[in-house]
Amino acid sequence: MLEGQFSRTAIGAAGHRAAHQVVDGASVFVDPLAPRILGKDLESAIADGSDPARRRLRFFIALRSRIAEDAARRAIGQGVRQIVVLGAGLDTFGYRVDPAERLCVFEVDHPATQAEKRRRLAEAEISVPSHLVYAPCDFETRSLGQALEEAGFDARAAGFFIWLGVTPYLTPDAVESTLRYVAGLPGGAQIVFDYVNPPETIEAEATRAHHERMAARVAALGEQFRGYFETADLHRRLAALGFDDVEDWGPRRIRERLAPGSPAGGDNGGHILRAARRV
Fold this sequence. Notes:
Layout: H1 8-23, H2 33-38, H3 42-49, H4 55-77, E1 82-86, H5 93-96, E2 104-109, H6 111-123, E3 132-136, H7 144-151, E4 159-163, H8 172-183, E5 189-196, H9 205-220, H10 231-241, E6 245-249, H11 251-258, E7 270-277
Parallel strand pairs: 1-2, 1-4, 2-3, 4-5
Antiparallel strand pairs: 5-7, 6-7
Helix pairs in contact: 1-3, 1-4
């Protein structure tokens, strides 16, 4: 992200969520606020997200939100009252989730991106619920733990973290630092995030070419891809950090979910992962 500017890829992700509502009839993920929060960018964002060449990405973005939100709602049903959306961008979960007693949804993001989001919310007349707390965080000057503590997050109580569309833009060390913080919370925590295998390991030529085009596209916006993980290595890292419950949706499982009966293919590419550490 360019210094002092909001994330342009946040608009792209919201555009794909909005396009899914319009083009696909919200067949995987329902988000009626996605088109509204885009405002004047709606038409161009939907046109971009509707490009047939980006259909695979559009469904991936829809599915990762569906998996994350379903898991978050299950956690709320089990008594978790702290939901943290890391790199929230234009995500609207906190504005759609049903209220629950003592529920608190923390949105963590760069101050510039957060300010732009709040402007768009006001312009779209989307009200901010009482359970929503903004936790601005410039990682150049403060840590995630510090930002959450200042926003009122209780590390002793259970938490659920949603971290979508972020890890590819971070170094592996930065990703592991965040995972270490989540795993170390004394109240226990779960996290859902997505990650990408190293491009050279992606077996399907079309998938690899698609990733390379997307990498060039976001680099032109000043937001380069920097973090890749081999699946087995990432699972070992998670276990070493103390996560004792890991569920991973790789390309093969995603294909089975979105297109049953489709031709078999490799299992390297984009993944959606849920990890939990029980206490």
